[in-house]
Please model this.
Amino acid sequence: MTAAPLLPTLLPTSLPAVLHLAMGLLLALWTLLFLFRIVLTWYPQIDLSKGAMRWIAVPTEPLLVPTRRLIQPIGGVDVTPVVWVGLISLLRELLVGQQGLITQLLRHSGSLA
Model:
């Protein structure tokens, strides 16, 4: 038995299920980018406007700037990426987690196995 016949059954077939998967992956990617920002706070000499660091800074900075106005650095350390990791993780769990709202709606409608 080969894995090829199993592959189509593993992929979502309905549009709501595809959107559910895409939302989960997007929120996971965003969390990963904020985790990179947490590590980069340990190295303030790194310029985020150059090279590959722009791929981390561009999607995260629009959220970090207004948050920095509300939450000041603690002991000289920017904690706003930690706040956003928590918020995005909470949002991901509430929407597309095992007991998430969208997950439950899809299960109730039969679009998600």
About this structure: The chain has one domain: 24-109.
